[in-house]
Amino acid sequence: MASSDVKEQQAVEPGNFPRAGVTRPLFTWKYKHGVDGQGRIQFPSKWKMRSMETELIAVVLRHELTEKDYILVLPYDLFNQFSTRLYSDSFTASKAQAVRHDYAERIMGIDLDGAGRFMLPGELRTPAKLEKEALLVGCIDRFEIWNPADYEDAREKEKFVLKAEKNGNNNP
Q1: Which residues contact 8 (CB under 8 A, 6 or more apart)?
Q2: Are 148 and 135 in contact (CB under 8 A)?
Q3: SS3 of 164, please?
Q4: Domains, in order of start, for the chain
Q5: Torsion of CA 1, 40, 8, 138, to 10 degrees
Q6: Phi and psi at residue 91, to the nearest 5°
Q7: For residue 65, pLDDT beyond 70
Q8: Dihedral angle computed from the Cα positions of residues 13, 61, 85 and 142, in that order, rounded to the nearest 10 degrees
Q9: Which residue has the higher pLDDT, 93 or 122?
């Protein structure tokens, strides 16, 4: 894959022009890496973070079609958009508190160490079944971390949904 896989893109707010001087990483392709005994995973060298000021936030999510967990990793500005609804909920309502607690327990910031690795604690690795290997999947402005077998299962189901939609059947 050419070195053009990794670029930085101008940060663009919906409906606006790029903000001058503000860039964010561009994640493309997929990379399989080992998970060491301390939960460290090598960050793909092609995804080098040009701005080490970019904070990454990891969130455990459930894939709707497979009911399997994976980890979504977002730059901070996208995480802020992703979690906006939590800011609008009541601070004291029981249900809002429960949702906020459930959500917050599945989130953590991740940092790259000097060797270009990041560490995921067991609380994040376990739901996503990240034991010996992890598949890092670029999704343009974010990336996902999957158990490789679960990702293949998810892609098969997604392809089925896309094929059904293409054929005019919206109920896979």
Answers
A1: 23, 24, 25, 26, 50, 51
A2: yes
A3: helix
A4: 28-166 (3.40.1550.20)
A5: 50
A6: -80, -20
A7: yes
A8: -10
A9: 122
Buried b (16+ CB within 10 A) or exposed e, 136-146: bbbeebbbbbb
Q: Output the pTM of the full model.
A: 0.79
Strand partners, 41: 35, 118
Distance, in Å, from the CA atom of 72 to the CA atom of 69, rounded to the nearest integer, reads 10
111-163: per-residue pLDDT in tens? 888 888 999 999 999 999 999 999 999 999 999 999 999 999 999 999 999 99
Q: What is the pLDDT of residues 154-165, one digit of tens each?
A: 999 999 999 988
Number of other residues whose CB lies within 10 A of the CB of residue 132: 9
The residue written with tokens 């990483």 in the block is 25
Please list, in sequence order, all residues whose beta carbon lies within 8 angstroms of the beta carbon of residue 79, skipping any fewer than 6 positions away: 57, 59
